[in-house]
Design a protein that fits this description.
The chain has 601 residues and is mostly helical. The chain has 26 helices and 8 strands. α10 packs antiparallel against α11 and α11 packs antiparallel against α12. The longest helix is centred in the middle third of the chain and has 29 residues. The chain starts with a strand and ends in a 13-residue tail after the last helix.
């Protein structure tokens, strides 16, 4: 139970107390700042505190946004503010600074505004709610109260609540084919006490059933798989809309939503590959290629965003051109569709699964994702080259964490420190050469399962170490993690594809899935503000260069069937290692709830 303290002259017949109780608050009254401070001190330290002016007039949803959103330590609208445990000391200090006696009426007449201004000056991250068409005000006279009530009656806050449950920026398919009805499904779930995490889990189970249907290899199974995949996506949209509708944000929920999306898509790829195999068509290489390409696309997104998360002095003309294109209107939707977001991608996969064959599904997926990757990466490279930005130590640390360098690269980096200039193009060039040297060799060498390949992998590791020897603050240093991911994943794919054992590719699929999960987990930890996984985990998994070196050794030392067994064992060990640590972390994580805003009211 949270506590709301009413500070100010009472208003007879006001529905405010009932609204506060509806939102789960225990309502108490205070006559002055001193008594309010005493009440706050008596409330257990782990509880949320709200301070509300009894003359508040506004929508219930305006109060809900200001007083119950878990993402913000402190939040406010006119006439109401809240402080979670982390911001309560600042609220207590603000009350303690208010003088008593003559001449202080201007500070205590609308106490909530005085406290809000004080919290705004403190470093507590005060969030001022964007009300849009919602009403929230302090009515000081009967005329103002009547006018405010008329304004409240003119706006349907439930309609606003439904509208803001939908993201303001989403793909064309999601916006026009899913969200018009999924928001009502989200409300249905909220009224029945369902949580976003439960809906997320239902989406995962639906997608896994879809993968199972695809694995049957029958036309009926493929049709059922396509339908279920689309329904899984509806649920995937619903969980986020439910979180925004009911303000049930959590770090755990964001992690489940993000990781389950990848699990659903990649499990479906595996189901398609199994179904194709039942029909005599081996498409495991295509399935693994699609997973590699999609994961590398995401790493490009993550790296670029982290590199520019808090960059200053962004003067890129490319960004200005992008803003101008967005202002045209229809180009916004075209550009969003070009990047093949999850809605368009899953719709394409579902329709092609039902109407064609797994091979055609993967061909379309590879072509579409490749074009999208070229478009987005080229645009980001141009932005990086034409901007004048100073990247921070935080950004450099995030890129280093995303690089996933192991003990060997760390050793090389330690010896190469000081030999390159921070901000130059040396890091991305070394990372590119690290991946290119390895891939050219394993692709074009007649027998890549040899000890010569191990030597090439060792040279690739040396180049990888040189790439991360200096802080990654250069204009294109965000390309270092994507180059490493492309080199590692593609090397595993090629070595498995060129093995004489047919089970090597499915084993490689499992291995890349386990490693990719580790990399996604790193991203979500950084986004949650908790930093990367512990160094012991990175060292235990070998780092990118260590895993590649180990796999080339296994390919050279073992028979094709032994190589398949080794890949399978390595996949199982890595999956258990990263999943165990990841689950332990997220279950016990104290990271703040994520910010995932819907459309402004």
């Amino acid at each position: 139970m949270s506590t709301a303290i009413l500070t100010g002259p009472p208003v007879a017949g006001s529905p405010l107390e009932a609204d506060l109780r509806t939102l789960g608050f225990d309502v108490r009254a205070a006559d002055d700042p001193a008594s309010a401070a005493e009440l706050i001190a008596a409330v257990p330290a782990q509880e949320r505190i709200a301070v509300v002016d009894p003359r508040f007039v506004g929508h219930l949803h305006a109060l809900r946004l200001a007083l119950t959103d878990p993402r913000f330590e402190a939040a406010a609208v006119p006439g109401a503010l809240t402080a979670q445990p982390g911001a309560r000391p600042a609220l207590a200090r603000a009350l303690g600074r208010i003088p008593v006696g003559a001449g202080t009426a201007h500070l205590t007449d609308v106490l909530t505004e005085t406290l809000t201004e004080s919290l705004d000056r403190e470093d507590v991250g005060l969030h001022r709610v964007e009300l849009g068409s919602l009403v929230a005000t302090v009515a000081l006279t009967p005329a103002q109260r009547e006018e405010a009530r008329e304004a409240v009656a003119a706006v349907d806050d439930e309609a606003v609540r439904l509208r803001t449950a939908v993201k303001s920026r989403d793909g064309f398919f999601t916006t026009f084919a899913i969200s018009p009805y999924s928001r009502y499904l989200a409300r249905w779930c909220a009224r029945r006490g369902l949580t976003p995490n439960q809906v997320t889990t239902a989406s995962l189970l639906t997608a896994l059933i879809a993968a199972g249907c695809a694995a049957t290899g029958t036309r009926g199974g493929f049709i059922a798989a396509g339908v279920l995949l689309l329904f899984s996506f509806v649920l995937d949209c619903t969980d986020g809309q439910l979180a925004r509708y009911s303000l049930q944000y959590s770090t755990m929920g964001a992690w489940l939503d993000a990781t389950f999306d990848r699990a659903k898509e990649y499990a479906y790829y595996a189901g398609l590959a199994l179904g194709a195999a039942r029909g005599g068509d081996d498409v495991w290489a295509l399935a693994l290629g699609a997973m590699v390409l999609q994961t590398c696309r995401h790493v490009v997104d993550f790296s670029f965003n982290e590199a520019n998360h808090d960059a200053t002095a962004n003067t890129s003309p490319t960004a200005s051109l992008s803003d101008k294109l967005d202002s045209v209107g229809w180009t916004v939707w075209v550009r969003r569709m070009i990047v093949l977001p999850i809605g368009e991608r899953w719709a394409m996969i579902a329709v092609l699964t039902a109407l064609t064959t797994p091979r055609i599904v993967f061909y379309a997926l590879l072509v579409g994702c490749a074009l999208a990757a070229c478009y987005t990466t080229a645009g980001r490279v141009l932005r990086s080259l034409t901007r004048r930005a100073r990247r921070t130590d935080r950004a450099a640390r995030a890129l280093a964490d995303l690089a996933d360098s192991g003990p060997l690269a760390e050793l090389v980096a330690g010896g190469a420190r000081g030999r390159g200039r921070t901000g130059s193009y040396l890091a991305p060039v070394m990372a590119f050469l690290s991946a290119a040297v390895l891939l050219v060799w394993v692709i074009f060498e007649d027998d890549p399962a040899s000890w010569l390949t191990v030597g090439v992998a060792a040279c690739s590791a040396l180049l990888a170490g040189a790439a991360v020897a200096r802080p990654l603050k250069g204009a294109l240093d965000w390309l270092v993690p994507p180059f490493f991911r492309a080199g590692e994943y593609t090397a595993i794919l090629v070595l498995a594809a060129r093995s004489d054992d047919p089970g090597a590719l499915p084993a490689a699929f499992g291995l890349v899935a386990a490693v990719a999960y580790h990399h996604y987990d790193t991203v979500y930890r950084i986004r949650g503000g908790t930093g990367a996984p512990p160094r012991w985990l990175v060292r235990a998994t070998g780092g990118a260069e260590g895993r590649v070196l180990a796999i080339t050794v296994l390919a050279a030392a073992l028979s094709p069937s032994g190589f398949t067994i080794a890949l399978t064992a390595l996949a199982v060990v890595l999956a258990l290692l990263v999943l165990t640590e990841s689950i332990r972390f997220w279950v016990s994580s104290g990271a703040p709830a994520v910010h995932d805003e819907g459309e402004p009211a």
